[in-house]
Structure formats: structure tokens, C-alpha cells
Amino acid sequence: MMDMRFLEDLLDAALRQTPGASDILLSPGSPVMASVAGELRPVTGGLPDMLTEADTAAMARALLEEKPHAKADHAATGSADLALALPSGVRLRANVFLRLGATAMVFRRLPEAIPSAESLGLPRLVTEAAAALDGLVIVAGATGSGKSTTLAALIDLINQTRAVHVVTLEDPVEYLHPPKRAIVSQRELGPDFQDFAGGVRAAMRQAPRVILVGEVRDRETAEAALRAAETGHLVFCTVHATDCGGLVSRLAGLFEPAEERSARAALAGCLRLAVAQRLVPTVDGSRAAVFEVMAPTLRVREMIVHGETGEATFSEVVAQGKAHGMQSFASSLGRLLLGGRISEETVSLYAPDRATAVRIIDAVRAAAGKKDGDAPLKLELDRR
């Protein structure tokens, strides 16, 4: 019988056989597959040679029975996210989904320790945001771009340095934050609260200094997050957008046209920092984050209220904002290339366009050619 114990044993066995695996994929018509350095490989030692539709459906039912909220999501949308702790102590983030009417599952291994801001290479303005007293810090990126990990590192930094109450609203809870200097009250969508907007409103009655909103998906959540930031709380949240300009458009677009101007004004008034990130492959087979960082200068606030124009876009303002600590994706890619962590091919693949890729590669080659002894290399890609 493929019950929860069977699934846990299968996952433990797969992870033991592939210690470098980041993900385990259970899909009908295939053996158990592990993703190692971005490539799938079969895991067959003592495991089923081939999973059937009945196998994956039975394991998914066992998993979802323990998570009623995820079960409801799966029934309504065909997919569900949840967290899972194996008897071995390994924590996983799971996604259960339908494809061609059959059930498949992906399990991502979560690090046992929360990565530090330094190990993630977070830019200076991002780590400094953890010391802010109030305002809104927004982290944007596609699914799987590392947003949750960045926020976990920032919450851990607050936990280490500030004696405050932090309330997190997550779907699902991924990283655990034991008490250090702070108390971190972690709440999970479903078991602990029913929707993000209601969770934010409830959090404001729980005497927090810091609130983390796992994802801003709708107008009600955006409005609640803005209200919390305007009333003296430091609010961290994520949105699905590819860059800082898209982040502003995404949030503004959640509101009705009659409300958008006031929503933009509220965002301009309380924004503490906007960050967008992407993951790129490194030369050692792992992945590293590249960042776009936008500080709320007067010009940025005006553009949030009035929108981009043909004369100025958010990406151009970021590229010109080095004096304010801003950073473009191009600059971030250049630093990784200069440090030998990524290849020129990766720059060509992930730069915004070919001209930018050529500019990054030429700048790094020039900087490397000017190296004098052990003097640090400097890379000038963004304009002051």
C-alpha cells in the first residue's frame, strides 16, 4: 500500500542515493528522477523501475490528506504547494500537479541551515533593509528564482540583530526560524490563516515590528501590505515580476483604474527598496543570483506615481543610480563574471540583450587586463 510512510521512505532513499540532488521528480511513466546540477538522472536502487499513474495518484492522495488546504487548492486549480518534513529531518517543498490528467510531484530539498546574506551575495542596500524601521521592501522574480531564500536570509539577519517580534505569512513555511534576539512567529496559509490579506490585518494586531507577506497576489493583499507599511511596520513581500519596473506595474495593475493613482502614491510614499532577482548557472554546476536593486529616490518616486515615459524607464534610472547604491542586472552579471563564478556564455544567455552582453564581457576583460598585483578589480558597468 502506497501510504504516507511509503512516500517518506521513497524520498529518503532517493535523497540518500543522490546526495547532490536539489529536486526529486515523481512522474508516471518514468522511474524516480533526481535533478543534480540541473540535469535529471534516474534513481533505481531499491525503488520502482517505473512509476504508474496509480502509484503517483496514491502517493499524492496520502500527502494531500495531511494538508487539507493544499488538498483544496489541488482540487480547485490542479496544483498545490506544501512543505514536508521527512522522519530523517530533511525538509522539502512539494508541488503536486496534474499533467494530461495524471498526477506528478516535485520535491525540492530545503537547506538545513538558512543561507547567510553574505553567502547569497546580497547587495549592500538589500542587507541594509533589514535594519529599517518601517516601509515596504519588495522582492520580485519568477517562480524558482530564489525569492524565498533571499527573504529567509533577511529575516534571519533581523533575528540575529534585532529584539523585535516578526510575523511571517508563508505558503508554505520553508525555512524555520528558531528564537535568537527576535521572536519569529511563522504562520502557514491554510492551517494558520485563510488568505494573505486577512493574515496581514491580523498580524497588525499581534504587536509586530516586521511582517513578511509570502506573496502579493491580489488587490486586497496589496492594500493590506501598503497599509501596514504606512503605519510604522517594516513589511517584506514578494511579487511575480521580472524586473523592478515590472514590479511597479504588477502592483499598480492589481487595482481598479479609479484606484490606481492613489495606490501608486501610497507605494511611492512607503517603498523602502525594490529588488528583482534571477538565478544563473555557475561554472561549478550550482546557481547564483543576479540582482537589480532600485532605491526610492525622488525621481523613482515620481516615476512610480506618474509611470515610465519615453524619456526615462526604471531600468535606465537604475543604471544611472550607482551613487544611490542601485545596481542593474548587467552590473550583477559582470561581478559574477569578474569573480570567475560564471562563464561568458552564461552572460550571453542571461544579459538583457546582445549589446549588453558584449559590453559586460568587454568591461570584464578590460578590468582583468588592468589587474596590478593583488589590487582589487573594479568594474564600471552602471553609470553614476
UniProtKB/TrEMBL annotation:
Signal peptide: none annotated. Pfam families: T2SSE. One of its GO terms (molecular function) is ATP binding. Residues 127-289 form the Bacterial type II secretion system protein E domain. Belongs to the GSP E family. PANTHER family: TWITCHING MOTILITY PROTEIN PILT (PTHR30486:SF16). This is Twitching motility protein pilt. It comes from hydrocarbon metagenome.
